[in-house]
Amino acid sequence: MKKSVNEKKNLAKKHLKKKTDYQMALAEAQDVLMEAAVKMHETLGCHTVDYYYEAIIQTLQVAKHQRACNPWNAYLRAEVKKYNEALPNNEPHCKVTELAAKISANWRAMSNDEKKTVTEESMELLEEYRINKCTGVNNVPINVFHDTCTTLKSISNELTALSARTGCYSLLMSVRSDTDHYSRPYVYMSDDRIGDYFQLALQQAPTDIATHLKAYCLSGVMGVVQNYKQALIALKAETSLLIIEQLREAAQVNVPRMLYVNFEENSYQC
Predict the structure, then answer these.
(1) pTM for this structure?
(2) What DSSP line would sit under the chain, residue for residue?
């Protein structure tokens, strides 16, 4: 049954009110988070208000997706660690998948009280490990490198699956912000057409843009300018070398250097 004009207007008003109420509630929630971030800034003073605001949001996101620790995972992690620590220094460590069957048999043979006793300490260690892994600050460059690689690979896999499900095209670009870190510029494209667009619109590949972005993030505008100068000098050197090699091949003599002034006279003397 078709709705009348008045019914459609009333329905539109209801939808608009719901949308307005949602936006107002969302703004109020953001204000609460911002007030907490301001309070943290005033109390701690180590970082900016924006830093604490983003930290609160990230912590909430981590808490939303993090699964609770269970005794089996704690026991498995502790037993694998114990086994590998007992190996000689030159022996490669075993993976969890290689030891899971044996450890699982020992686990099933224990009573519930034994399981609770044997995992009491390992549960606390696993919980602490998960918290540090999700929210801890990585200060060691090698840890930052591994964390960056793992996270970017995981995000890229998610974007690939998203593209397969929905046909949505995605571009992911990541660069380091510290000269002590090891990560190279990372570019992910879910489809080659994204790269073609950059080439047509900007005459540059996304990888080139990521390189320029890295230079800017590390050293500002001067870094980008310096990279351009270095690239131009290298290009001139390659061009000069190519010219002298072609001249020697054409003249069939060993030309010591290229003389651009009075080229015709000097080339005739050669």
Answers:
(1) 0.39
(2) -PPPHHHHHHHHHHHHHHHHHHHHHHHHHHHHHHHHHHHHHHHH-SS-HHHHHHHHHHHHHHHHHPPPP-HHHHHHHHHHHHHHHTS-TTSPPPPHHHHHHHHHHHHHHS-HHHHHHHTHHHHHHHHHHHHHHHH----SHHHHHHHHHHHHHHHHHHHHHHHHHH----EEEE--S-TT--PPPEEEESSHHHHHHHHHHHSS-HHHHHHHHHHHHHHHHHHHHHHHHHHHHHHHHHHHHHHHHHHHHHHTS---S---TTHHHHHHH-
